[in-house]
Every structure is written in structure tokens, then in C-alpha cells.
Known about the structure:
The complex is a heterodimer of chains A (340) and B (326). With 340 residues, chain A is an all-alpha fold. Chain A is 76% helix and 1% strand. Chain A has one domain: ABC transporter involved in vitamin B12 uptake, BtuC. Chain A has helices spanning 2-12, 20-26, 30-46, 48-51, 54-79, 87-104, 108-132, 137-156, 168-175, 183-201, 203-213, 215-220, 225-251, 262-272, 284-303, 308-337, and strands at 177-178, 181-182. In chain A, strands 1-2 form a two-stranded antiparallel ribbon. In chain A, a hairpin with a 2-residue loop joins β1 and β2 (181-182). Chain A is globular and about 65 Å long. Helices cover 73% and strands 2% of the residues of chain B. Chain B has a single domain (43-317), classed as ABC transporter involved in vitamin B12 uptake, BtuC (Orthogonal Bundle). A two-stranded antiparallel ribbon of chain B has the order 1-2. Classes of the chains: A mainly alpha (340), B mainly alpha (326).
Amino acid sequence: MNRIKAPLQKISNKFLSKNSFKKLLKINGSIAFLMCLIMFAFLAISVPKLFFNPFNIQALMFAIAPEGIVAIGMMILLISGVFDLSVGSVMAFAGLMTAMMLVAGLPIIVCIIIGLLVGVAIGFINGLLVEMAGINPLISTIGTMYIFRGATEFLMVGRSVDYNNFPEIFVNFGRKGFLGVYWMFWILIILVVVFTIFIVTRPTGKRLYFIGGNENLAKLMGIKKRKIRIGAYMISGLLAALAGILMTAKNDAANRYIGNVTHMNVIIACVIGGGSLNGGQGSIPGALFGIIFLSFLQNAFNLFDFESSMQRIILGFVLMAVVSVDGFMTLRRQKELGRI
Amino acid sequence: MEQKSISTLNNKKKFNWTSLTIIILTLAVFGFLWATSDTFFTFANIHSLVYDTSFIFFGVIGFTYLMIMGEIDLSVGSMFAFSGMWLGMLCDWGLPFAPALIIAIASVIGIGAINGILVVRFRVPSMMITLGMMTALAGLSNLLSTNLYGYYYPDAYRAIVRPTISIGGEEVFVLIIIMIVIIAVLEFMLHKTTIFRKMYYVGENLDTAKIYGIKAAKIKFITFIISALTAGIGGILVGSRVAYAAPTIGIGYEFQMLTAAVLGGASLFGGKGSILRASIAIFFLQLIRNGMVIHNIDPLLSQIIVGIILIIAVYLDTRVNKATTV
Lengths: 340, 326
């Protein structure tokens, strides 16, 4: 883990203090990792029987996998200084497209590819709107969020066709696993590893940080900002579509409510995991730890039989606290550097 | 560039045609609906349209002011749900209506102050802080609505939006009159008082505004309180109309308000925006929904249309502004 994080640390934090605990905290995503550990220890000690119950582990994997996959794409966008609110709508729309093709009787692999291509296309549209048309990412992705959520509802509500009863292989893809771990969780692990290695070792990965850190400087250095950001949006769309297809397979039905709150959860998880809306910070493992923390939190509330609304209240305050602490640290660092 | 500086020296503003976009759009849709439908231009229909507009209008006031200053408050939608239900809860606990109302308003102001202090003190993007507040308030109002299940608000609460006044033989809700008066007063104050001009200066260029001695942090803090307060008032009015704690109140309001503020000329970079045009934009969104019902178009398509309008409006806005500033 340290070998992967070391270059990130170099990029994002050049000014480390002498205190080693503070050093540890400044490694990107370590706060989320610590929070995960605390939640895990808390759950493992207080309710070991319920927590290590196979059904609970299963539920946790199903909760973590799709949002984790989406979070990878979101983190890449956040590093480069933009974000995407349309991921939830992409999940629903791509899932529905795959379901429609399956009901029409096309081969499974073709259906999945079509679903993924839909995601890539929506990501491309987002990228064009943000980079070519120059529309603020908040507005343009809210626009596409509206459009594709509306399109999903338009295609599903009040139609006589039910998009369910898919071929068994497709359903097993969402429900079965390998070595006791679900396919979707394997996919998540592979994607996290691949994208982490990509970002740490490839020049394009470093360019993402440069673009997020200082757009104009990156341009002067000759980095093709537009190309990279549009690519990042396309990856985000692709991953969201993949998550949507996996959810559709698991449910054995297209569902228009898929991803209703995903964009919020994922952004919150990424910010907890060290990302920043200002860009230039964050790491893929951080995003994963953020999602795992959220899932543990949800799990804790379920196991202790709390009302689910309590969970959102605490989540909101956790987000505000994390963001404020981050802001406070940045402010102090800038004061030390004499920028303020 | 030279011409521009000369024109500012002469203090003569060139008339900005883009500011009329939303008004022309609204008039066009209005005319279209009037021409193609018999049921549209009836007193009852127009009256209910304006009445619907008047609720979200309250939230839009604070929201637009924050956008003028280059900040954003995503918690307004949840605030709509929370404030109404919180007042209902206080009534359910047996408090008389007047103190309950005071406590509810005070809590709303407190929430706005928390948003404001965090954004101003720690210089965090307001979107993140208010996203957190939005989640927390949504959870709170969820909790309230499950606790208030089956409870109808007391008469004093339900009476707030009831009063009507007869104008020309027709009964008109007082709320509509209040809305029009507020719009007129705010628009007048915007042009005639320095307090509101300061907001634009802060939004346009924070550093310059500070050099000129404008207390930007204080103004921002107060505006966050105003934003929470106006949304809270709107929420209490909606609660008074719906009369019970419906869990669907306020869902998606923040995006509607954002759409309305942007259609009304506000920019996410601050320095622009107008209450009058934002209110017209809300009316415009209601018109579209109304028109789709009248013409038997699937109302599910309205989301798609609003999304497309939003993107086109902002695209045109960016193009026009780039042309004038670069």
C-alpha cells in the first residue's frame, strides 16, 4: 500500500511537518482508512455475531461494489478538478438499455457492450459540455442528470413490457461469485488495482493532478487538458454504466430508482476519502475507503436497529466536519507559506 | 475594450439584451399556450399557476442572493421540508402556535448561521458544506415525517396561507400579493441602495471589494442566514398548505431553484442575477409543466425538457459573456 501511496504523497503534499502522526494524516485517504478501521473495530467488538454473519457480509459486498465502481470514476474527475452528478441517472439508463436489449433477445455480451457504450456516450456528452461548450460542471451534469433520469422514467412508466426474467447467465453474473466473493466485488477490486497503478505510474495519471492543481499552468506545460478531461468523463460514464448493469443483473429487473442518491453518496465518499472539489487531490484507494466507511456506517445503523434517517443525519454532519477540517488544514498551510 | 471603458466612465450602461431572454421566453410560451388552448387563459388556471410559483419564490430570494455573491446553498430543498415539519412537531408537542413559530424560525436562522460560519471561517466551498447540511436536514425531516405520521397540523398553522382578498370580483390569495410586493421592493432596493450593490461587488471581484472596504465575510455570513430564513419561511408556507408532514415535500427543490436562478441570469461565478428574473423563471418552469398537461404530453418528459433548456440557456450565457469580456 505504501509503495502505491508514496508518489501520491510526493505530488499532493510537498510540505510535510515533522510530527509523524500528522505525516500519516496527510497521506491522501488515510483519514478515510482510519475511519474504516475504527468502524470495523467497533462493529467487530460490539456485535461480532451479527457482523460476521455470512448474510451480513453478503449485504455489505452488495452495498460496496456498485458505489465503489462509480466512486473510482468520480475520484478521477475530482482529481482533475471537475465532477459528475449524472452518474446515478447513467446507472439507471444504461441498466435499462441493457435490459431492453436482453428482452429483445440479443446475445448477452452484445447487450452488455451496448449498455457500456451508452455510458461512454453520456460521459462524452458531459465532457463536451464542460470542456468544449465551457458550461460549469455543476450545471451541465445536473442537466444530463435530469435528461437521462427523465428518459429512463419515460421509457419505463406505464409501459406494458416488463423488463425482467433475463437469461440465467446474466442474472448469475450479478448474483453468483467466485471463491465466495461476488463477481461484482471482484470487478471492483480489479478496477481499483488497475486504476491505482495507472494513475501512479502513467504520465496521464500525473497530468490529472496537474490539471486539477492549476489549470492554466498545466496548459502552459503543454498538457492537453480538454482531451484528458473528456476522457475522464468517458471513464466515469463507463464505470457508472457498468455499476448500473451489475445492479440490473442482481435485481433481475430494470429499475428506474437505481442510483437515485448515488451521486450524493459517491461525492461524499470521495471527499471523505481525500478528494477535493478544488481538484488536484485524492486517490483511488481513498475513494474505496470512503465508500467502505459509508457502508459500515449504514451497516452499523441496521445492526443496531436505528432508524435509517438517523444515518443520513450523522452522514451529513460527518461530511461537514471532514470538509471543515480539510479547509482548516489548507488555510493553515497557506498561512505557513505566507499566501494569506 | 476601449469603448467599454469609455462607456463606464460616462456611467452610461449599454442596454443588456441578454437580460430579456427569460422574459421573452416566458412570453413566447405564454402566447403559444394562449393561442393553442382554451383552458389555459382562464382565471382559475393562471391563478393556480401563480399560487404554485409563490411558494418556491420564497426560497429563490436567498438562493439568488447567494449566487450573486458566488456561493451556493444546496440545503434549501431539505430546509423546505424541515422547517414546515419542525413547526408541526413543535405544535404536536403542545406548544401554542406563536411560540412554536418563533422557535421554528430561530432554529432555521441557527442552521443558516452554521452554514455561514463554516463557509466563511474555513473558506470551504459552500457546495460541500451545504451538501452535508442537505443530507442532515433530509434525514431530520424524514425522522419528523415518520413521527408525525397521521397527524394533521393545527388550525392556526393551516390558516397562514388561507386568507384571500377580492380583486375585481375574483378571490385572490394574499400570498400572491405579498410575493408581488416583495419582488417590487427588492428590485427597487437593488437599484437604489448600496447594501445590495455591495453583494454584486463581492461576487464580481472579492479582492477588489475587500480593498474598497466592503466587509465581504460579514455580508456572506448574513446572506447564508437570509437564504436559510427565506427557504424556511417557504417551507412553513408549504406545510401550511399541505397540512400534514408529507415526505415528498422539498425533493428536488434545490435543482429547480438553481435552474430558475440560472435562467434568470445568475452565474455560478457570481456577480450576476436578479430576483425579478429568477421569479419569472420559476413561473416559466411552471408554465412548461402546465403546457405539457394541457397538450397531453407525458409529464415525465418535462424533466428532459427542463434539462435541455438549462444547458442551452447556460451555453448561450457563456458564449455571450465571453464575447463581451474577452
